[in-house]
Amino acid sequence: MGVFDVDYNKIHERTDFPYEVEVTHHTWIEMPDGIRLSAKLWQPKDIKGTTKGTVLEFLPYRKDEFTALRDEIRHKYFAGFGYTSIRVDIRGTGDSEGIIEDEYPQQEQDDALAIISWIENQEWSNSAVAMIGKSWGGFNGLQVAAHQPKALKTIISLCSTDDRYADDVHYRGGTMMASDMLWWASTMFAYNARPPFPKFVGDRWYDMWLDRMENTPPFVEEWVSHQTRDAYWKHGSVAEDYSDIKIPVLTMSGWADGYPDALFRLMDNLDVPKKGIVGPWAHEFPDMAIPGPQIGYLQEVVEWLDKWMEADGDVDHTDEFLVYLQDSVKPATSYEYREGRWLDLFKEDQEIHDLFDGRTGEQRLKNIQHHGLYSGVYCPFGQDGDLPDDQTIENALATSIMLEPQQEAVNIVGQPVARLRVKSDVKEANIHARISDVHPDGEKTLITRGQLNLNHYRSHEFPEDLPVDEYIDVAFTLDVIGYQVPAGHSIEVSLSPTYWPQIWPAKEIAGLTVDLEDSRLELPLVNNFEAVSLKHEQAETAAPLEKEIHREGSRTREVIKRLTEDEWVLEDYSDEGLRTLPGLNITYGTENRNAYIIKENDPLSARVECDWNVIVKDDDIDTEMKTKSVMSCDADYYYLVNELVAYNNGEECFSKTWEKKIKRNYT
After folding, report:
1. Residue 317: which residues within 8 A CB-CB, separation 6 or more?
2. CB 106 within 8 A of CB 77
3. pLDDT at 1 over 70
4. Is the dihedral of CA 127, 118, 148, 37 positive or negative?
5. Is the pLDDT of residue 658 over 70?
6. With 70 as the cut, is the pLDDT of residue 2 above it?
7. Burial label, 531 (beta-carbon count in 10 A; 0-12, 13-18, 19+)
8. Which alpha helices (DSSP H) does 216-352 contain, by range?
9. Can you give the pLDDT at residue 313?
10. Residue 569's beta-bridge partner residues?
11. Distance of CA 44 to CAs 47, 54, 301, 366, 604, Å?
C-alpha cells in the first residue's frame, strides 16, 4: 500500500446517513492579499437553513488526487451527518495560487484565519468551525487554535506535535535526524513541483507550474540553517504557551507513530476539555492504521463535533486518556495486529522503577558508526519493513546491559527518562539509549528509545562545548510506550554515541563513559489497572471513490555492506503505485528511492541521497517531475544539493539545481 492510498479491504462502509451528500470539486476562497485558494466541499443535500457546522482540513497534499481517496471516505461521512466539510489546498500547492515557502509559516496561519472568516460569511454556515487533520493538518489545527478565532469551536489533531524543534522529523533531543531531515524535505520538494489542473485554473496552469517550480525553495536549506531551538522553531510550537489554546481538543496517535510524545504533553498541559487516544498504530488514521486493532475514529469525531460545535454554556464532560497496553510480541518489521488491552491513564496510578538500581562502576561505550541500521523508520506509515527488526545485531553494536529475567510481568505505560552521569573525551558528542524485550529464546524486540545531543545538556537554544574528561549530569526522555514485559523475559538496556541514520553523527569519534552508580533509567509502570472498552471499536466510513490500479505499490528496505569500499548502506525504495481516479480522470503515482551511507570509523562519510519520480496527468496535461536531493558533510559544514527536472508531454520543460553550504553548529 502507498502512503496516500486507502486499503479498501479495511473499509466498513456505512450506508444509512441522515443526509445525502453533494460535492463541489472546486471553489475559490480569496485571501486578503488577493491570492486565491482552491477548496473542495462536501455538503448535506436539502438541509433547511444552515448546516450543523463546518469541518476544515487545510493541507499541501492536493485534494484532487493525492488525498482524494482518504478525503472521500471521511469528509463525506461528516457531510452525511449534517456538516459542511471542506478540504483546502495550502497556497502554492494543488490548484491554489501563490508559492508555499515552508512548513507552517505565519502566512499559512493567516490564510487559515481568512478561510475561517470566509466560512463564517457563507449562507450555509452557522459560524461554528472545527479544524481537523493528521500530521500537517494536526499541526496547523493546534497553531490556529492558539490564535483563538471566535468561530473555531474545537480541533481534532492526530499524529501532530506541540514542539517543532524537540519533537519532529528535523531534530530530536538536539540531534539532527539524518533519517528524516533530507527525506522529508525531498518529499515536499517533489510534491511541491506538481502542477495545478487546467480544468480548475484554466490556461494559465503552465505559467503557474513554472512559477511554482522556479520559486518554491527546498525546505531543507532553512531547516539545516536553524540547528538550535531558536525563534524559527518556537514559531508554531504551542508548547511555548499551552494556555493560548482555549477550546476543546480531541487528539490521537499511535505507539508506532513518530508523535505520541506530543500527545502526552498535550494531555498533561492543556487546561481545556480534552480526550486522548493512543493505539498501537503507525502514522495513519486509526480507522485504517496498522497494527490493529483499528477503532471507530469517525464515530468518535462526529460524537465530539455534536458535543462541542453548538455548545452553549456548560457541557457535561470528563477528560479521558485512553491508551493501549500492548502485549509482548516477537520482533517483526510489520504487524497486522497487536494484542493488548485499553486503560484510562487518568484513572490509574503510576510508579517509577529504576532499571539501573543497584548498578555500580563505570562503563565505556562502544562507538560504531553503522549502529542503528536495524532501527526501522522513525515515523512509520504502516508499510512493509517499517518497524525495527530483531535487535540482536543492534544491541551487539552498542554497550548493552542485560537485566535479570522478570519474576512478574511489568506494564510500561508512559515516558521513560534517562538520567545519566557521563563524560566525553571530545568536545562534541551524542548519546542514544534503547530498551529491548528479550524473549526466553533470545530474540529481542525494541520497546522504546531516545537520544540527546550532549552539547545541549543545559539548553537546546544555547549549546556549548563539553568539558573534556569531566562528568556531567544529563537527562533526556525516551519515547512514550505502552508495553507489557512478561514474567520470564529480560529487559536489556543499550547505550551508544551513535544511531545511524536516525542521528547525524558527530564530527569525530567520541569516547563516552557512563557512571552507572550515579545514573538512573526510570520506567513508568502501571501494574494494576482496570481495563476499559472503547465505545466505538468497529471502524466505519462513507463510500469510497472508484479507483483503477495500473501498478500496485511495493516496498523494499535493504542493509548492504559494500566490502570493497568498507561502506554500509541502507537502501529504502517505495513505489506508491500508479492509479487513476475515473471521476476526474486523473492519473498519478510516485516512486522514491533513498540511500543512507556511512563508512566505519569515519563519521564525516555520512551521506543521504533521496530520489523521487512523480507523475500527474489528466485529460489536459501529462507531466512528470524527477528530483534528486543529497546531503553530506565535513567537519565544519553541511552540503546540500537539490535538483529538479520536469517534463511536459514527454519533453523537458524545466531544470534547476540548488546548492547550499551551511556551517555546523554543535550537530
Report:
1. 248, 273, 307
2. no
3. no
4. positive
5. yes
6. no
7. exposed
8. 219-225, 231-234, 260-269, 297-308
9. 65
10. 560, 597
11. 6, 11, 17, 62, 58
